[in-house]
Amino acid sequence: QVQFVESGGGLVQPGGSLTLSCVASGFTFSDYAMNWYRQAPGKERELVANITRAGDNTIYPASTHGRFTISRDNVKNMAYLSRRNLKPEGTDVYYCGHPEIGRGRGTKVTVSS
Description:
The chain is mainly beta. It is built from no helices and eleven strands. Helix content is about 0%, strand content about 50%.
């Protein structure tokens, strides 16, 4: 059974940093590129980062303005998303996954003072 479990969300002060984690199971993790998505209330889910199977290349949509860093550990079957200098944007939910095999339930991040 394919499963993604995100963690690391919570309340973060503006200007702070955050690293989200995603543990995957039920498939050969190193066979798939990994994506992180973000969804704000009332908005569609958007891709914020992609990393290749080997972790040797990353892609970030222009809309993210270089604010994210994605990484992975194929030994631990984990993907990570880091972000620095967080701005007060309210509450977003972050998901990891792959369009062909699924995604997790997400972890909620609130940036607020």
